[in-house]
Amino acid sequence: MSSNNIDFAAQCIKDGKVVAFPTETVYGLGANALNPLAVTKIFELKERPSFDPLIVHIADLNQLDELISSPDERVYKLASEFWPGPLTIILKKSKLVPDVVTSGLPTVGIRMPNHSVALELIQKSDCPIAAPSANKFGKISPTTANHVKKSLSNADYILDAGKTTVGIESTIIKLTESGFKILRNGVITKEELEKVLPFDSEPIVEDLAAPGMLKSHYSPKKTFLIANQSTLAIDKSKAGLLSFTGHLDNGFKKVIKMSQNNELREYAVNMFEAMHAFEDDDTIEIIIAEPVKEEGIGIAIMEKLKKAAYNWQGM
Ligand code: AMP
Ligand code: MG
Question: Whose CA is closest to 134, among 33, 217, 46?
Fold first, then answer.
């Protein structure tokens, strides 16, 4: 079932059901984070391996304290700058957070989404909501309710509020003694974070790495390649292009422009939607994406494109 009834969606969450809902990044598949049985259903529906922990979404800073075990004033500094917004902070969890949410880790990832519907849903559900992206594990992330229906039509409810405005997953950071480390890149960049906390440039050691960060992810079911000299040698008459600068557009069967004004932010917003459109298009056999410079938001965009292309390398 899908519509825009927030009260109904909140009642579903209270009843231990699983609801897909919009955030500013991508659509999430949510359940009461404090109800282990409800959270287990997310893993089942998504076919997500149990070693891949979920992010817990809150609507109010008051919800933070009961979820974490050692309050850290730096979190409040980050929160006042970046929440609500696409920043997930990994913190020591309290006993209240079920192990199934964190895949048995002693830490929990928390964020406050910048989306009025998500915030209202969390408030009305009266609990923090654990939610990964609302797609089957490893596949393209959903930026519309229709994308969710494509792979998770069996969710108890799909709360539809149109297309998401950021389009790619949150930046994930972990606090260390000297500052922060980035576990996953997103539209909140290292440079922005450095205005609040120093960047800890020590290389990330194994136990700091985000579990579930696999080399392949966000992957279309069709051949997906990043444009370069050799991938551009393919037969373009059956290929679709995610175009940024326009320089590569010639000869492709179809071209989807990521941005009208060469803005990386728009590439992020439109990237997954374009992958879905080509995946669903029977006239397209191969999807090619134009790469961008790995600076600022470009780092996050390239991180996603490389993971989407990972299984298709050498094709
Ligand atoms: P998503 O599938 O976009 O909801 O992202 C969830 C990702 O957040 C996981 O795949 C992990 O990489 C990361 N994550 C969540 N919780 C933790 C945690 N406690 N420690 C480290 N990384 C985490
Ligand atoms: Mg995901």
Answer: 46
How far apart are the CA of 51 and the centre of ligand 2, in A? Answer: 13
d(CA 62, CA 42): 25
CATH superfamily of 2-193: DHBP synthase (3.90.870.10)
Report the nearest-CA residue for atom 4 of ligand 1: 132
Is this structure's pTM higher than 0.90? yes
CA 299 – ligand 2 centroid, Å: 17
Tell me how far apart the alpha carbons of residues 84 and 86 are, in angstroms, rounded to a whole number. 7
Q: Atom of ligand 1 at shortest distance to CA of 132?
A: 4
Q: pLDDT means per 10 residues in the chain (315 residues)?
A: 90 98 98 98 96 96 95 95 98 97 96 98 98 96 97 96 97 95 96 98 69 81 95 95 97 97 96 97 98 97 95 74
CATH pick for 223-312 out of 3.40.50.720, 1.10.3720.10, 3.30.420.40, 3.40.50.11030: 3.40.50.11030
- Distance from the alpha carbon of residue 155 to the mean position of ligand 1, in angstroms: 21
* Phi/psi of residue 76, nearest 5 degrees: -70, -35
The continuous run of DSSP H or E covering 171 comes out as: strand 171-175
| Cα 238 to ligand 1 centroid, rounded to whole Å | 36
Ligand nearest to the CA of 142: 2
